[in-house]
Specification:
Layout lengths: L1 H14 L10 E11 L14 E17 L2 E14 L7 E12 L9 E13 L7 E13 L4 E14 L7 E12 L5 E18 L3 H6 L2 E4 L6 E2 L7 E2 L2 E19 L4 E14 L4 E14 L1
Antiparallel strand pairs: 1-2, 1-15, 2-3, 3-4, 4-5, 5-6, 6-7, 7-8, 8-9, 9-13, 10-13, 11-12, 13-14, 14-15
Length: 294
Amino acid sequence: MQSALACGILISLVMAVPAAMSEPVRVEALTTVVFESNQTNAASASDREEGWLSRSELSVRRRQLVADGVGLELAGEAGYEHNLRYSDLSNGTLDAVIRGYFKPFVGFSVPRLEVGARGGLRQYRDSDLRDGMAGSLDLTLASRLTERLSVRAGYIYDWRRASSARVFDLDGQSLFAAGIWRPSKRLVLYTRYRFRVGDTVSAATPSASIMRVAKAVAADNAFGPLSLPAAVNQTRQRFAYRIDATRHDASLGLGYVINRQLALDVGGKFRASNGDGGDDYRGFALQAGITYRF
């Protein structure tokens, strides 16, 4: 009930933006299927868990021209992620987004400065450790180099605060760069790289050296106990633990515009994290999605 009320308030705020000098309200629905190779963010092969997820998102947004070269965008987003293998990790999200745009001079390739903020709720089906709030602040420079090529680069501060467990109280800072190439009116190729420094959480059976550097630890049953080889005939408790780490994310994708309302997207992401105590993990994700604009 609270989530539905909050979503209604967000949509009302977006709709209330004055119509003068503003674009029409945009409503979009996105559905994505994702395969993740390392859902636990674990270094050890025995701790890694792979699986499929489905994500659905509905967004309502409106952009308004405030003055020459200055714009503002307000949005409300509601999403649901279903974890096909670990149902306890299925979760709903509700976010408010505000974004400002500033282009100081007229010119095709003159960079545009963007400042954005988002924040919202995270509610899991049955993983109280992960319930809470999350958000981010970002500063971005964007420029169109040619009719077909545009680039973006900037800084992101992200945060997360758990309702009941300190292990998911996270903070991080990132630098990123991205490029978009449109070889035709319908085809879009994109790539992105992000370097992040800050907190990361893994769900595994940590060694004594990892436990010594962990900033917070909590028993985690979302993935179930770790089953050891049959000859050992026992299981081990998994723990969620938070450590400092540096992380590299690289993604590549392809989009295809079918018409003004419908678009397809496929892509992949590789992640490499180097954590305190030698806790290094790798993982990748593959996804395919469809977006419908009402």
